[in-house]
Amino acid sequence: MTGTVYKSTGSWYTVKSEQGDFMECRMKGKFRMKGIKSTNPIAVGDVVDYELEQTSDTVTGTIHHIHDRKNYIVRKSVNLSHQMHIIAANIDRVFLLITINNPPTTFSFIDRFLVTAEAYGIETILVFNKIDTLDDVTLDEQLYMQHVYQEIGYQCLRVSAAEGKGVEDLKALMIGKTSMFSGHSGVGKSTLVNALEPSLDLKTKNISEQSKQGQHTTTFAEMYDLSFNASIIDTPGIKGFGIVDMEPQEISDYFPEFFRLKEQCKFNNCLHKEEPHCAIKAALEKDEIAWSRYNSYLKILEGDDEHYRTDVYDEDRKASDKTRE
Question: Which residues contact 20 (CB under 8 A, 6 or more apart)?
Answer without folding.
Answer: none
